[in-house]
Amino acid sequence: LGPCRLLTKEIFRTNLLESLSYVLTDCDGVLWADNAAIPGSPEALAGFRKLGKKVMYVTNNSTKSRIEYMEKCKKLHFQADMDEFFSTSYCTALYLKKLNFEGNIYLVGSHGLRQELTDAGFNCSPIGPDPVPDDWMNWAVNTMKLDPQVKAVVVGFDAHFNLTKMLRAASYLANKDCLFVGTNTDEQFPCGNKSIIIPGTGCIVQAVATAASRKPIIVGKPEPFMPDCIKYRWPDLDPAKTIMIGDRSNTDILMGKRAGMKTLLVGSGCDSLDAVRRNVAENRLDMVPDFFVPKLGDVVEMMPFT
Amino acid sequence: LGPCRLLTKEIFRTNLLESLSYVLTDCDGVLWADNAAIPGSPEALAGFRKLGKKVMYVTNNSTKSRIEYMEKCKKLHFQADMDEFFSTSYCTALYLKKLNFEGNIYLVGSHGLRQELTDAGFNCSPIGPDPVPDDWMNWAVNTMKLDPQVKAVVVGFDAHFNLTKMLRAASYLANKDCLFVGTNTDEQFPCGNKSIIIPGTGCIVQAVATAASRKPIIVGKPEPFMPDCIKYRWPDLDPAKTIMIGDRSNTDILMGKRAGMKTLLVGSGCDSLDAVRRNVAENRLDMVPDFFVPKLGDVVEMMPFT
């Protein structure tokens, strides 16, 4: 396991807990799978709070707005305040604001992303189905209407992603001045069933990037923009006193390591100990977590008050 | 332009024509754009035939069967015989036969590819729309039916590509023994309008590969399987006496160069002289054609009998 240690009660109490002020946690695969809480995760976060740690949610999932995340948290028994949420839906809006972006947005995405973008004052194309016409190539060349005011293509997760959306996105991106933003590159969503693979936003971003022959700017983990947002909102955050918890080596752990945080990989989502071993073997040490635990709930019984 | 020369009547007659026995030509962007012949291309191929050259069609487009290609050729006034067609639809069937593949195929593709696969005796999933259920993640985990006999996922161009198809393909590919074949990786289809980008099969293959975290075997250009098929059918073909004509540097020209053929890039499709200059500047000489001509029809007036 190289520099990664299996988290035990002793390690947790002697090497970790005391030094922590901030607990940043990924959501899908750590706190929940689809619409069900992963057993023990609500109690684990409640425990950290009881021990005086500041908890924050850091998710690459762009499908929900912060308000929708708060509703989901409450339903699944996680405490949640608005300023604890750093999702790619929200951070994409912050990114465009930071650029002083002007112009319309062609959006490949879901309701929550559109909500955050419009709440921030941006004009966005509608979401939802955009059917493929029968004689689609002829339609594309001769009939398709493109909005000349579109100056950015934003790509997040979109359950209605199809050829028509690829066509529109790539055609906007043929203009090299059109900004190309992807919320994140996660290849899969964790779903709690290893024989079913749920394609993630990365598949959609890759498809559009291939069509456009361009590389997008990525807002989400492991890129630095999300930790920058957190530090901007919480200037007291000291990376040395912060742990990043996640289920993916190439997003959660890599972001945490790059930001100088401690890192904890949980086995309840995408990556297992096999991924740790593979990254150790291939010397990708920036993706090897400091600690591993099968699931976040396992820390509950390590906590001093239990 | 580095080692690439603009084709002139003098070069055509003194350096090229005499040495040729075989003329291999790409289709989309060279012979036609969507359903219209590119002006002069029918006359150019007819001219090569009149000069005693053997003409063959070598296309990465997997949407049509050889029979459908013959119909299209006849409609657009290109002469065509069945054994002159090497499409990825046909060659994918040949590839699976060469492997003595047994098992069912999950197909992301179009009618022509399915036709060639079933004509070769393979069991294929149906093509066409496969709608995304409302509660799709729950459906995927709890309701989606996967065929346990599927031992290969074949991905070609599919106008109905969507999340459901990605889900099924990636879930089959979670089994490492399941074969993963992509017809080709072309990023775009040429459509004769530089401000409209038509996504190619490469976008679909990339999306599935990302979801599955696997690399496919690619049947089409620039990989060696298609020239191998041609040599198998036409053992007399001598690469030194063959020219490969195409509109893409990273498929047509690269395949021709790797196979030791002469190469001609035409500017009527995806790549222009800019692409040649870029490849020269970046020292990718295996993508730099021997000759360039704005469109294939321009060779007609270079031919000795005109």
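qc> Chain B touches chain A at residues 34-35, 132, 136-138, 140-141, 144, 159-163, 166-167, 170-171, 173-175, 187-189, 191-200, 202-204, 206-208, 210-213 (CB under 8 Å).
qc> done
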